[in-house]
Amino acid sequence: MRIVIRAIVLTLAVVLSTVNAQTFQGVATYKTQRQVDIKIDSTQMNSDMHTKMMEMMKKQFQKTFKLTFNKEASIYKQEETLAKPQVGGGDMQIMVVGSGGGSDELYKNTKEQRFADLKDTYGKVFLVKDAIEKIEWKLEPDTRFIGEYQCYKATYTKMVEKPRQFTSSDDDKEEEEDKEPEMIERTVTAWYTPQVPINNGPAKYQGLPGLILEIHDGKLTIVCSKIVLNPEEKIEIKEPSKGKEVSQKEYEEIMDKKAKEMMERYRPRKGGRDGETISISIGG
Prior knowledge:
By secondary structure, the chain is α+β, with helices and mostly antiparallel strands.
């Protein structure tokens, strides 16, 4: 009799767990911003124009995203906005490389540990499919509240390319571009809440015992501003399927090649009279 009862309890536990995974849903709204530090020779741009450009660039990288999730999967997508402000004017043009498109969608399945990232880049649609990279989080003792949610701190370190410093000289730029990138260590800090029991978060941050509400990764900051759990209208999480399917490595190689082509195309030519072009590559 005990064996029968135990089997029934285990069966009910499995059923309830499956039901909870299907019915537990939510939408988290995130605000992102990225510090932009651009040093330009005074012969290229006066101080007033530089200040104006910095303000416009700052606004360009202030975005709002929504993470739609259940216990197993999620979609992370930027909210639709008006056209981005144009930076520059007259003989001065700004080319921003690597900012991403507003139609991008990131699907993650944390149960199967895989993602499908829809990217519209340079007018071409890619579908990047790969395994979710495991993050070696270190759980810290620090706690704080973000809104009504008690959050806990976690950190991890990763190696990233050191930002390069370019001068206005074509020869200096070419010499700098030919060098192997210098790698430096960066600590990423996250704040997560077990009150929302999913191991997910914004962008490609996940793997903690609770929803990640805040991220500090170099010059990038992501902060959750609103959470709606189990909304009345049922949420549908659909994996994207259109676009040229590539792996993460293949996509990075394509983007690196395209970025170099664009930089070369817009590089000021010696003796030319077409004005100056400042190229800004946005990294992590």
